[in-house]
């Protein structure tokens, strides 16, 4: 028993000295409802895993959205008896006031996205990877927390006028409802994404890779919108600036061809995404990071909305290397720009394993 215990401790000691795996930039994704049918820019790790190696990850993110057309700021929902439930009947009763406007929208929902990510080292320079997401669309649980936060001085107009934790997605064109949903959607599979990463440059300080990804149109979002064969072409880099400071940088062009008639009618544009990440490595097992996530506007200019404007968000998190081969990540995402074209905030956690 003594020898077995000593051998076990020796294995633990060796494991503790084993180099930790690079995590790469966090695969941040925009969770605004309009962005869900199409491909959004996501950062990609530039460092190949090595021939025959695997990395598996399970990501969870809970994203809260409360956004609406600017016209509601001048004519907000009111009810003398308390908070307003935004129903289809409510929208239809008030939409004649906006019959001259091409588009009016109201989005209030919370999305839990679970994403399985797998990556395989095809060669020492080339990795293949995929992402398979499943989503729940509900009223969620974050509304009270967000309202309490806004009471500190970061008020978001309208949150205290409508019911908490409701699901309402409404789009109207010239005073008539063109899309409405107030029902929960559970366990909805989204389109997978398949990708390839090819290392172009390797020095002691730099790693530079090219990336390509493809999202085949296999599912419908909200049972209505089906994208085209979305593609992404980009570059991603790792800069080891100092022993305690590592930076990830990258960007990509996202091509969004036409899909189903309802999807195409939204008018998605091709876009560009960028990321810049700082990872602090003072401690061996704990690595905090701050990632900036920028995207170009994704729709053409329209009255009383800002979907044509670019957006900048931050993703603040920490990697905790639980064992030499498994890592837990916790992160918090929020917008820096306030154009009403991003999810308001998101909390997330990930479990990553290397083999």
Automatic annotation (TrEMBL):
Domain of life, per the record? Bacteria
Among the Pfam families in the record, one is DUF3187
Task: Identify this protein by name.
Answer: DUF3187 family protein
- Please name the source species: Geothrix rubra
């Amino acid at each position: 028993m003594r020898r077995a215990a000593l051998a076990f401790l020796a294995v633990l000691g060796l494991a503790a000295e084993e180099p930790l795996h690079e995590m790469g930039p966090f695969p941040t994704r925009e969770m605004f409802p309009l962005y869900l049918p199409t491909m959004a820019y996501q950062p990609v790790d530039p460092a190949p895993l090595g021939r025959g190696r695997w990395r598996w990850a399970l990501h969870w993110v809970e994203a809260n959205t409360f956004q609406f057309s600017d016209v509601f700021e001048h004519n907000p929902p009111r009810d003398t008896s308390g908070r307003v439930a935004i129903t289809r009947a409510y929208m239809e009763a008030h939409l004649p006031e906006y019959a001259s406007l091409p588009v009016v929208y109201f989005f209030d929902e919370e999305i839990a996205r679970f994403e399985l990510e797998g990556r395989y080292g095809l060669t020492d320079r080339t990795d293949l990877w995929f992402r398979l997401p499943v989503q729940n669309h509900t009223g969620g649980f974050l509304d009270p927390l967000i309202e309490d936060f806004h009471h500190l001085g970061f008020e978001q107009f309208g949150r205290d006028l409508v019911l908490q934790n409701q699901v309402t997605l409404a789009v109207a064109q010239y005073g008539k409802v063109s899309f409405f949903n107030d029902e929960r959607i559970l366990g909805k599979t989204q389109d997978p994404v398949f990708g390839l990463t090819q290392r172009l440059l390797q020095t002691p300080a730099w790693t530079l890779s090219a990336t390509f990804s493809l999202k085949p149109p296999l599912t419908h979002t909200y049972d209505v919108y089906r994208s085209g064969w979305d593609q992404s072409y980009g570059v991603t880099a790792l800069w080891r600036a100092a022993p305690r400071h590592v930076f990830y940088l990258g960007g990509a062009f996202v091509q969004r061809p036409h899909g189903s008639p309802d999807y195409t009618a939204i008018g998605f544009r091709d876009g560009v995404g960028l990321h810049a990440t700082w990872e602090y490595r003072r401690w061996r097992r704990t690595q905090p990071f701050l990632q900036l996530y920028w995207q170009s506007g994704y729709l053409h200019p329209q009255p009383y909305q800002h979907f044509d404007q670019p957006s900048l968000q931050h993703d603040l998190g920490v990697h905790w290397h639980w064992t030499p081969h498994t890592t837990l990540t916790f992160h918090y995402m929020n917008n820096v720009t306030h154009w009403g074209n991003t999810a308001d905030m998101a909390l997330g956690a990930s479990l990553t394993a290397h083999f």
